[in-house]
Amino acid sequence: MKKIKDVNDFNFKDKTVLLRVDYNVPINQYGKITDETRINYSLPTINKILFDKGKIVIISHFGRPKGVFNNKYSLKFLIPILSKKLKKYIFFCDKVIGNSTEEKIKNLKNGEIILLENLRFYKEEENGDKQFSYILSKYGDIYVNDAFGASHREHSSITILPKFFNKKCIGLLMKKEILNLSIFFSKKINSPITIILGGAKIESKINFIKNFMKFADYLLIGGGMSYPFIKIDGGNVGNSIIDNIQSKIQLIKEILYENKIKNIIYFPYDVIAIKSNDDNNIKIVPIHSIPNNWKGLDIGPNSIKNFCNIINKSKTILWNGPMGLFEKKIFSIGTISIAKAIIKRRNNAFTVVGGGDSILALKMIKSITKISYLSTGGGAMLEFIKNKTLPGINAISL
Question: Known catalytic residues?
Fold first, then answer.
């Protein structure tokens, strides 16, 4: 990848910076943020601009409001936490576009920050609308993309907006992500290399597996990711999750065939299964023979032992996605065991964890700081490793 400019290449004095961040943070049922990683990682970029006496217009998305205003997804809840972390008052604008927004931005003084409302309240954001991007571009002198977790999306604020700027760069979060994740396609990487994939986003993650088979020594696939493979390989997975795979059946068959030659992919041997959503009716069963009306919700003890043995001898480890329904304690053993095994390797391996569920698992055992690198992206992390870049990065380097 050719060198692209970052915020350290600019002096922002008297300049208005349009800063795209990813504040799509997880919240609980009470609206409380459960993981502040993305906010914390954005602070160095903000502080650099403030140190230069620049003005900042922060733009972000949150949730999936599908192009309409929904108070549930308003970014206003971020004002108190941003004010506390930056030790300064943060202005808020309840509209992304409009005369009142333009006026508030025009009146910003050096060292002041304004946060605009959720970009996804406008359908134009996800549609890659040029006119919407053009209007946004009038808000700043310099565009900065520090939204790694959203930079795999071809959305207006990520790929179209930068085209209207002569001066543009990446933030320090983005720079850190690129430096740390580039290890996976560099000569400095140490083997054995193990990639662990789990979670329920089957349709999207399957696309990465063939590429990972080119350089990984071990691919451990658990959670909802594993059941489509087992089913297509002739196993009975009962009622376990196998959604959205119709368009991926041929790809799954190709992966299974290739794996018979390379023997890189390891699936669970056994699972913790329940009958008809009855948490009191649980048993350990082989993953290839889950009875009808039963579904697997965690990897079993033999699978945990096998996966952990592989992790224990690995020198480079990447993890994205839980091994089951870990939010429920009775189905958390597999995910927590994987997390603990990775943590044990911290002095002997380069360990990378990305994705909200995997990070939450680390938080559950108070080990979020015991990883070599914590990525703010799940899908973005996987896509960057696959393609060695992202649409949002390409938009800056043009």
Answer: 38, 201, 356, 379
